[in-house]
Fold this protein.
Amino acid sequence: MSEPGAPLWLLAELTYKCPLQCPYCSNPVDFAHTGVELDTDQWINVLREGRELGAAQLGLSGGEPIVRKDLELIVAEARKLGYYTNLITSGIGMSADRVASLKEAGLDHIQVSFQASSSELNNWIAGTDSFDHKLEMARAVKDNGFPMVLCFVTHKENIDQVDDMLNLATRLDADYVELATTQYYGWAFLNRDVLMPDRTQLESAEAAVNRFRDQKINDAMKIYYVIPDYYENRPKPCMSGWGSLFMLVTPDGTALPCHSARVIPDIEYPNVKDMPLSDIWKRSDAFNKFRGFDWMQEPCRSCAEKEKDFGGCRCQAYMLTGDAAATDPVCDKSPNRQVIEDAINASRQPEAKPLVFRNAKNSKIIQSTVQD
Amino acid sequence: MSNTEQSAQLTQVPKLANGYRLQWEPAQDSFVVLYPEGMKVLSGSASEIVQQCTGEQNVAAIIKSLEEKFPDVELAKDVLDFIAGASAEGWLDV
Ligand code: SF4
Ligand code: SF4
C-alpha cells in the first residue's frame, strides 16, 4: 500500500470530565474506566509529532476541555507550532476571564454547543442548569473577537425548535451554526430509540433551514445542516475513509481513527506513550486495518461508488451487523438494510424508554452489566 | 460586504476576514488559508494575490506590485475577479 497522506485533523480529547450529561454524548459509555490523563508535556509532545506529520487543524475537546487548567499552555504551544486551534466546549466551567486568556494564548476559534434553544429543554438535556451561562459565554466569545460556531445536536426532543435555534444563533452573532442530527454512537446508540426523529420532523427541520436561507434573514451566518444517515440510502463517507485525514487521541493517550473506533473488538489501538505518532499513523495495524479498498467485501468490493463513500462507517457496520468489514447497512445495497428499518420502527413506538444520561454513575453501571 | 458585484473595485482594500489565516504548509508544499475546521489549499497565483491582501493597500496597488513582480503577465482582470470571488465566499473583507 502507498504511504498514507497527512492526518490533517488532529483531535485531542483532553479529558472525559464534563459537568454536563448529554444523553447523545459521543464519548464511550465506559469512559469512567479510562486510564490516567496525559499531562501537559505529553500533550505537547503529541502536538509536536502531529505537526511534523502534517496536521494543520487541531481540535481541543473532551469531555469538557476547559476543565484542564493547562489549556492555555497547550493552546499557546499549538499556536506556536502553526496549528489552527479550535476549542470545542459546552461553555460550562468557562468564565469571561478564561475566554480572554485563551485569546491571549493564541486560540483561533471557539465552538459552543447548546442542547436546545430554550432554557428549559436545554437544561433538561444537559442534565444541569446551564443555559444562561452558555448565553453569557457565547457573548464573551464574540466580545473577544473569536469566530464562533454554535452547535446544536438535534434529535427527537429538540429538532422542532430549528427556527428558534437559527434565531438564537443570529442574536448571538454566530459566524456559523451547525445543526447536527445525532449520530448513533456512544451514549446516543444506547438512547437511539428515544433520540431518533421521525421523517416528518426531519422534513420540517429542513424546510425551516431553507426558509431561513431563502428569506435571507442572516446571510452572513453559514449554516451546516447534517441529516442522520439512517434516513438516507447511501452511507456517509465516514472520516473520508479510515486513517485518511483524521486522528483522535483520547485522554489517556490512545490513538484512534475515529470517535467510536473502540467499539470494534480485536483491534489493539496504540498509545502515544508507547509509540511515535508517525509510526502509529503510517505503520500500526489499527490505522492500516481499513485503509484503501482491499479489506472490502461484496457488494462494496465491486461497487462503482466505493471511492465516494468508502463503504460507509466501520463502527456502524460492526454495531449493526456484527462484522466491521461489512457494507454499512445504511446502504440500500447492503443485505442488512432491514436493521435500519427496524431501528426506525423501534423509535416510533409510543412507550418510549427513559433516557440514560451520560455520567460516571451510569457509566459504571453499564460497564458492570457488560462484564456480567 | 460586497454582494453580487462581478468584479472588485480598484479602491477596495482587501484583507482576510476575521478567523482566516494564511500560512505556508510544508506538508502541502503550498500556501493555505485556514479557518474554523477547514483549509483551502491555494494555487501559486492565488497565493501571490492573497499575500498582498494585508489590509494596507488597495486593489490598484496590489495589481501594480504584482505587475512589477510578473512583468510578462496580463493579470489585472484575474486579480479583480479573484478578489470579488473570495469576498463573495466570505473569506476576504473588502
Ligand atoms: S456531549 Fe455533553 S456530556 Fe458529552 S462531553 Fe459534550 S457537553 Fe459533555
Ligand atoms: S455497496 Fe458499498 S461502496 Fe457501494 S454504495 Fe453501498 S456502501 Fe458504498
